[in-house]
Specification:
The chain is α/β, with parallel strands linked by helices and 248 residues long. The protein folds into two domains: 118 residues, Rossmann fold; 111 residues, NAD(P)-binding Rossmann-like Domain (Rossmann fold, 3-Layer(aba) Sandwich), CATH 3.40.50. Helix content is 28%, strand content 22%. The protein has seven helices and twelve strands. The protein has a six-stranded parallel beta sheet with strand order 3-2-1-4-5-12, with helices on both faces. Strands 6-11-10-7-8-9 form a six-stranded parallel beta sheet. Helix 2 packs across helix 3 and helix 5 packs across helix 6. The longest helix has 14 residues. The protein is elongated. The termini are close together. The relative contact order is 0.17. The model has no long low-confidence stretch (mean pLDDT 96). Bound molecules: NADP nicotinamide-adenine-dinucleotide phosphate.
Amino acid sequence: MRLLILGGTTEANALARQVVGWAELEPILSLAGRTQNPAESPIPFRTGGFGGVDGLKAYLTDNKIDVVVDATHPFAAQMSAHAADACRDLNLPLALFTRAAWRPVPGDRWFSVSDMSEAASALGIKARRVFLTVGGLQLAAFAAAPQHHYLVRTIDPPQAAAALSDHKLILARGPFSAEDEVALMRGARIEVLVTKNSGGKATAAKLAAARQLGIDVIMVERPKPEEVLAFEKLDDVMSWILGHRPAP
Ligand SMILES: NC(=O)c1ccc[n+]([C@@H]2O[C@H](COP(=O)([O-])OP(=O)(O)OC[C@H]3O[C@@H](n4cnc5c(N)ncnc54)[C@H](OP(=O)(O)O)[C@@H]3O)[C@@H](O)[C@H]2O)c1
């Protein structure tokens, strides 16, 4: 049975490791190709966009894919929408393998917004020292709020950072410890953290650090998910995949 895993996440990598060794599974991992040094894949992989819904449908047909798991990031809304459309049109089983959103706990000072431009406005008129951890692609939205100083952290050098007049860039890949996040934020005299509600453990320490330091958090909430079967546990998505094996 040929399984396509749409990846680019910790979840996709965990699933890729899990499917190794099942004789009846022929898995392939698909990456967008955004990260310069992606984690090594334990299964065959392909890189790059499919070319929209039609390109994805052609790929699924040409490669005789039987089952698709969308394990893309919760903010990769376009890829998820394309997967939902293509699988519906081709009548292929599709499941989402994702992580729960972060939820505030007592002591948190979160302000929820729905996109980056709302996040930039929510920083306010008065100049603040901002820790910006929203990835590299949407930094340009903060050019609309040039009064602030931005400490920008990304995995790869972002092209859009130049749009921010007053900024400092740190290149780093999680996981991060709460202790290190407190030291970083304290050292940079950070007053507000901006983050996407990505969920997961690898980058959650910044939230604990913000709580400890009494710092405001502008939380960019997730786009609405596709209405497809969703799993948050590796064992559950694995059972679902194995349940699609053809009868012997
Ligand atoms: N957005 C985030 O915050 C974030 C964070 C961490 C990791 N990622 C990962 O980075 C990748 C790109 O994210 P994005 O937000 O730019 O996605 P997106 O906006 O949903 O997708 C844009 C386009 O990139 C291509 N693409 C995305 N994921 C792909 C995959 N796994 N395999 C092949 N093509 C893919 C597709 O191109 P075509 O239309 O040509 O098929 C898609 O239409 C995803 O794999 C995602 O899991 C994203």
